[in-house]
Amino acid sequence: MFYRDHNPPHFHAAYAEYEGLIDINKLELIGGKLPPRVLALVIEWTALHQKELNENWERAKRREQLKSIAPLV
After folding, report:
1. Tell me, what DSSP letter sits at residue 7?
2. Do the domain assignments include residue 70?
3. Range of 41's domain?
4. Is 56 a domain residue?
5. Percent of the chain residues past pLDDT 90, beyond the cut
6. For the whole model, what pTM was predicted?
7. Is 22 exposed, middle or buried (0-12, 13-18, 19+ CB in 10 A)?
8. Would residue 36 count as lying in a domain?
9. From CA 58, how far away is CA 36, in angstroms rounded?
10. Secondary structure of residue 3 in the 3-state scheme
11. What's the mean pLDDT when you consider all of the chain?
12. Which of 9, 34, 38, 41 could form a disulfide with 57 if both were Cys (CB 3.0 to 4.6 A apart)?
């Protein structure tokens, strides 16, 4: 997440040479490209941490420190 980023609330996910923008609320890829298996895992993680991601989005807008979010295990 970047403090100067645009709506909708989203984050950047990077994997190897790929990068995708993930809409936090719609649970979908809104830009870039990720391999299908990777995208599925990222969407699963997003669904599990939607509240935390939205809280971090608000922190980013206020230029506050983002909180760590647990990885998918």
Report:
1. S
2. no
3. 10-61
4. yes
5. 89
6. 0.91
7. buried
8. yes
9. 29
10. coil
11. 95
12. 9
